[in-house]
Amino acid sequence: MAKKGKRYRQAQDLVDQQDEPLTLRQATDVVKKTATANFDESVDLDLRLGVDPRHADQMVRGSVALPHGTGRDVTVLVLANEAKQDEAEEAGADYVGLDEYVQKIQDDNWLDFDVVIATPDVMGQVGRLGRVLGPRGLMPNPKSGTVTMDIAETVKEVKAGKIEFRVDKHGNLHTSIGKASFPVEEIYENARAFLKEVLHLRPASSKGLYFRSITLSTTMGPPIRVDRSSVLSDAR
User: Fold this and answer.
1) Predicted structure pTM score
2) What is the pLDDT of residues 28-37, one digit of tens each?
3) Would you tell me which CATH number, out of the four given (3.90.1440.10, 3.30.420.40, 3.40.50.12370, 3.40.50.790), belongs to the domain 76-160?
4) Which CATH class is domain 10-70+162-235?
5) Element (H, E) at 211
6) What's in the keyword line of the UniProt record (predicted)?
């Protein structure tokens, strides 16, 4: 196993001082102190949920607008017919079109974007991209709000910090909820908004503990355990 650097060990010492899992608010305070890299690290939330995504009725998937954004620029591709293209461009989409981009993704595996938004009437063409976009979590989907006729509003929301999330096949959910440079209160409010939405999406068929484990960390820092009961009270 590779030896951890001095900065990581110092951050780990800080986390090790906490004997018990921290409340969400305490964890957001500590996570800023563990950000010691020479770049603005992301702040990540990792959840292990009490669901079995092999069953369709236990798939946890959705989107949420983080109150303070993600702290990073999001590149948006809009796939739509000409009638909606001006609207997308005016809203700030980075790439707008249809046939040429469908072809480029199919033939060249072009993936220079973070989010794809499409109108319902072009999903017949977009569906052909499932093999490329699906495994990367980029396929437009009505459940996440990325298949819509309200192109302008959706582009603006995504640019402002709306994120999509989807549980993996093991029941884990990972997302970035901001940057270490954010004030503690903004990290807390973003984390709370995300967890509130995940709680809202709890499948009726999920039994027992829903939040099995919750950790907060920076890109280069150690994980900080978050007390599940504090999250349940904060997120309601």
Assistant:
1) 0.79
2) 999 999 988 8
3) 3.40.50.790
4) alpha beta
5) strand 211-218
6) Repressor, Ribonucleoprotein, Ribosomal protein, RNA-binding, rRNA-binding, Translation regulation, tRNA-binding
